[in-house]
Design goal:
Number of strands: 12
Structural class: alpha/beta
Shape: elongated
Strand order of the largest sheet: 2-1-5-6
Strand content: 5-15%
Radius of gyration: 20 Å
Number of helices: 12
Largest sheet: 4 strands, parallel
Distance between the termini: 21 Å
Length: 304
């Protein structure tokens, strides 16, 4: 639980917006270090895995990334290890200003990237492709992602009201960590056809049980990578039995790591959200008894 929340906190800290900066290097890099899971995934998706010489402790996808030398984690990067790996490019989040200054002082070229929105992710794909000689691959990937987004875009109505919780936190005195409206997950939810119940312009919130009862979501999605017992987490939501989502068995547990990584696999988050919304809207047309039979918990490991 604490590991998941620490990772989510790092995600919010590092989720930037804006255009990636160009590399300070003049030649195409051959020894690349990636300082975030989404950046590592992007590099592999562009066919650059053979050039990676280091990554963070959180970089575990794809499987080959687990064999890369580690250079620390968010906020605790090991610069001695980075220097020892002799990189000619380090790719990191644009919010890592202190790390950028340190790299510059060491004479190590770097590329800063963003990940707060879909536009940021696509810009990061193209920026990494341009800096590393994979422009064609980057453009093809961006086009594939855009086509899939268009395919999954939901009509205007009906739009169920959704709580996107994270970290498997329903048992902490009734308080729930939730994604707000100023983040990637809200953007994906809106494309999928849902409306976020979290009010105000903020990326995340800590909601009390009373607030959840008042907001009364139609659907609850719990994003809980590394959660060991999804059924136990679902059972905890029975304490919210007064809300529509629990009454109608609309509590969905998604446990894959991609659910909280703002890289190219965001499209799989969108696919999951879209399937949940589609299932909800389809089943709501059925008699109540049929809705209960048709509804289910989604244990999102189908893409693993």
């Amino acid at each position: 639980m604490m590991k998941v929340l620490s990772y989510i906190a790092a995600l919010f800290l590092l989720a930037g917006c804006g255009k990636p900066a160009p590399s300070t290097g003049a030649r195409l890099p051959e020894r690349i270090i990636t300082l975030a899971p989404n950046i590592t995934e992007t590099a592999y998706a562009l066919g650059l895995g053979g050039k990676l010489v280091g990554a963070t402790t959180f970089c575990n996808y794809p499987g080959e990334a687990q064999r890369l030398p580690r250079v620390g984690g968010f906020g605790q990067f090991n610069f001695e290890a980075i220097v020892a790996l002799d990189p000619d490019l380090v790719i990191l989040h644009e919010e890592c200003k202190a790390e950028q200054d340190r790299l510059a002082s060491l004479g190590i070229p770097y590329l800063e990237t963003g990940s707060h929105t879909i536009a940021d992710i696509l810009a990061t794909v193209r920026a990494i492709g341009k800096a590393c000689g994979a422009e064609s691959e980057a453009e093809q990937l961006a086009q594939r992602l855009n086509r899939r987004i268009a395919e999954l875009k939901h009509p205007a109505a009906p739009r169920p009201r959704v709580l996107i919780a994270f970290g498997g936190s329903a048992g902490n005195g009734g308080q729930v960590h939730a994604f707000g409206r100023n983040c990637l997950h809200n953007e994906l939810l809106e494309i999928a056809g849902g409306t976020n119940i979290v009010e105000g312009d903020r990326p995340y919130a800590l909601l009390s049980k009373e607030a959840i009862l008042r907001l009364n979501p139609d659907i609850v999605m719990v994003l809980a990578p590394e959660l060991e017992d999804a059924q136990a987490e679902q059972d905890k939501w029975q304490s919210f039995s007064a809300i529509h989502a629990v009454k109608n068995q609309r509590v969905h547990i998604l446990t894959d790591d991609y659910t909280c990584i703002p890289g190219p696999r965001f499209i799989q988050i969108l696919e999951d959200f879209s399937e949940i919304i589609r299932q909800n809207n389809s089943n709501m047309k059925q008699p109540p008894q049929a809705r209960i039979i048709l509804s289910k918990i989604i244990l999102s490991n189908k893409h693993a």
